[in-house]
Amino acid sequence: MAEVPGQEVNAEQGVFQGLTIVDVSGSVATSYAAKLFADYGALVINLEPAHGFATRKLSPLLANGDSAMHAYLNTNKHSVVATQSCLMDEPTMGQADLVIYDPESLSPAGGLSGAETNTCAISWYGLSGPYNGMRGSDATIQALSGLMRGIGQPEGPPMIPPGFQAQIIGGLSAFNGALGHLLAQRMGNRCAPFQLDASILEANMCFTDLAAINAYLGNPLPPRMGINRFPPTYPLGIWPCKDGWLGVTNLTPGQWKAFCKLLELEHFADIELFQSSISRLESADILEPEILAALSNHSAEDLFYRGQAMRIPLARVPTMEELFEVDQYRSRQAFSQVQAAGESFAAPSTPFRLFATPPHFGGPVAELGAHNRIWNSGHE
Amino acid sequence: MNKPLEGLRIVDLTMGWAGPLATRSLADMGAQVIKVESCERFDWWRSWEATEAWIADDGAEKSPQYLSVNRNKLNVTLDLEHPRGRELLLQLVARADALVENYSGGVLPKLKLDYAHLIETNPQIVMVSMPAFGSTGPWSEFRAYGSTVEHSSGLPHLVGQPDQPPTMQHVAFGDAIGGLNGTAAILTALWHKQRTGQGQFVDLSQVECLLPLAAQGVLHQSVHGETPRRYGNDHPEHAPYGVYPCQGDDAWVVIQVTTARQWEAMQTLIPELAGFGDLASRLQQRENLNATIAQWTAQHSSEAAMHLLQSKDITAAKLNNGEDLLHEPQLKDRQYLQWLERDYVGLQPNASAPFRTEAAPIPIESPAPTLGQHNHFVLEDILQLSESEIAELAELGIIGTKPRLPKTQSP
């Protein structure tokens, strides 16, 4: 990592050292919110049921059947198995600066009523409203938020984004809310404990709230336009080259001219109609065949570097395999090693880096109940 | 009662979507966020195709995308290429807790406003830099938008049908995620500063912000040494699972049956499903299964289908579009959209912060400011300039309230 001039490195590692977070639910969303605290040095305790958090069963699985996804979400955390019939009687709860939970997973006996600590509920739809209590998933969030409606062929069906994206976004957003309010307490702006209500649906509206606003203004988005085609930008998409895929975005007249020059399509460069991205989108049927033909003569790698040298925002679109070899990501340690069940594998590192107080890069994952002895006989 | 982040001052040099969204969250929680633009180098999110006609029509004040990510902020214009403008920015930095920027690599060093220069003025400042690929490495100065960030993350290789190209999810997917991570980065550094009094440099790569969203694919590749398959709307372990057509034009419902109990409930709703057997059998007959379900969903509106399925505890949701979001009962009940009057555009909906501590969302205090709206407040009240000094700045074009076309445009 490059040196930052004048940066004094703090010997103390861990921004959140001294902060204790208890996750009593272990959904992907609660785990991710807690992970960001753990990555920067908070003591995060997973208070798990006897059979462990549900994330312990998520694919992909390691050779012994343990979950790699659980491992990614839970590096450098403690695992304690709950032993009390009432959640508030658990010894760990008395230590918590913040309790993170998913209301779906709280039984009445295990509820947080009477808790005199900060809490952060991360639920699919929020703690109130007509959908409170409805079943949720990453896909229902992407459906209701409007994101899914824009993905796929015009004739449909729209495509479901894979994985746990909605929950990761929900967890990240809840982390922001919780940390903002913890900071408020430290600054003296808040005294009483807070009960934060973080909605995964509302967090995922970050992609589409503008679509609602534009609809109100009488400028609704057009219907789904097809794979990799989105208003108001053209050319935009992922196109095949001689070897691999190139990501293309042209927004400004200058970028369009440079892109035409790069692909030797100069006859399009100065046409007045094509100086606006919306007009280009309306003319996509004319432009696209020529762009595709030109791209097929070049390697994606070559176009990427030459394009970027011309200040055109082009991208290589790496496969999962290629991702680990991208020199930019290698140089920044974008992936780090997680150790679980005797295996070591690569996982995404924390996306933001505090230079003076860096995060953990990867790390070990606790087996279920690994810290029972410490927490159930009194924290040392 | 104080607002959570009241007392914090953030200098905001961000433009576009990601950076302003990062600082918007801080402004929502009560931090004083001072957005700095110049009349020539104004936020390109106002328009990337600015013309004289657009300026004459006050287009700079009407951009919905600009208005949506800049509410609750103050706005000051300063020409940072002019020595006096630069000096005034440094005076603001001296009185601030943090500065956030997402300029193209090389711009701030050229202006002598990079971290090394800022800490000469304020050694405790937190500086958050959030370029597309991060501030280090061979691509640190490469140009990107939210779409480029999505392309570069590898995520498109996990989305869509196996026989289709790698599939994007959004026109600017990387922006929103970069913005949320930007908030996280600033708050983390401010927490450290609150504890220790020390500021620092924070580096955020917007592409790396997308990697957690691709985690399952990344882990599959790393653990199994093979490229993960794309399944389209199918699920390798569950059926029925997919997006089904409903009554009406482009109307759909997503249905995910992942437990035996849900499958039993499906059969009570759709008796024709009875012959499809156990999970292994259903996975084998997926096409027929989906067709049978589609016959049922096509008889219902997406809203009715969702509620019928949810009443049986089956995971389902209608697919909304932008217009639908305005009427979405859950969002309406939680007052997710807040309505504020704004000069030039009138009454506008604004999206609430996605977290709250009260029954109502965090109130949005003010709409996005107009260009240079708070010049006097910032220069007079915060920087203690006199009226005549401010008038001189206006005369020199260092401050202003109307955009001008730059000599060379470089969003």
CATH homologous superfamily of the largest domain in chain A?
A: Crotonobetainyl-coa:carnitine coa-transferase, domain 1
Task: Please give the CATH architecture of the largest domain in chain B.
Answer: 3-Layer(aba) Sandwich
Shape, principal axes of CA atoms of chain A: elongated
- So what's the overall shape of chain B? elongated
What is the residue-averaged pLDDT of chain A? 93
The helix count of chain A comes to 14
* Main sheet makeup of chain A: 6 strands, parallel
What is the alpha-carbon Rg of chain B in Å?
A: 25 Å
Low-pLDDT ranges of chain A: 1-11
Helix and strand run of chain B: EHEHHEHEHHEHHEHHEEHHHHEHHEEEHH
Report how far apart the termini of chain A are.
Answer: 36 Å
How big a fraction of the residues of chain B is strand?
Answer: 5-15%
Poorly predicted residue ranges of chain B: none
Helical/strand content category of chain B: alpha/beta
CATH superfamily of the largest domain in chain B: Crotonobetainyl-coa:carnitine coa-transferase, domain 1
Whole-Å distance between the termini of chain B? 40 Å
CATH topology of the largest domain in chain A: Rossmann fold
Oligomer: heterodimer
Write up this protein.
The complex is a heterodimer of chains A (380) and B (411). Chain A has 380 residues and is an alpha/beta fold. Chain A has helices at 28-39, 68-73, 138-144, 165-187, 200-204, 209-216, 253-262, 266-269, 277-282, 284-295, 300-309, 320-323, 327-331, 372-376, and strands at residues 20-23, 43-48, 78-81, 98-101, 118-123, 195-199, 236-241, 244-249, 315-316, 335-340, 343-348, 352-354, 363-364. In chain A, strand 1 (20-23), helix 1 (28-39) and strand 2 form a beta-alpha-beta unit. In chain A, helix 1 (28-39) packs across helix 4 (165-187). Chain B has 2 domains: 9-212 and 340-409, Rossmann fold (3-Layer(aba) Sandwich), CATH 3.40.50; 252-318, no CATH class. In chain B, strands 3-2-1-4-5-6 form a 6-stranded parallel beta sheet, with helices on both faces. A 3-stranded antiparallel beta sheet of chain B has the order 7-8-9, with helices on one face. In chain B, strand 7 (241-245) and strand 8 (252-256) form a beta hairpin. The chains are: A alpha/beta (380), B alpha/beta (411). Strand 6 of chain A pairs antiparallel with strand 12 (355-356) of chain B.
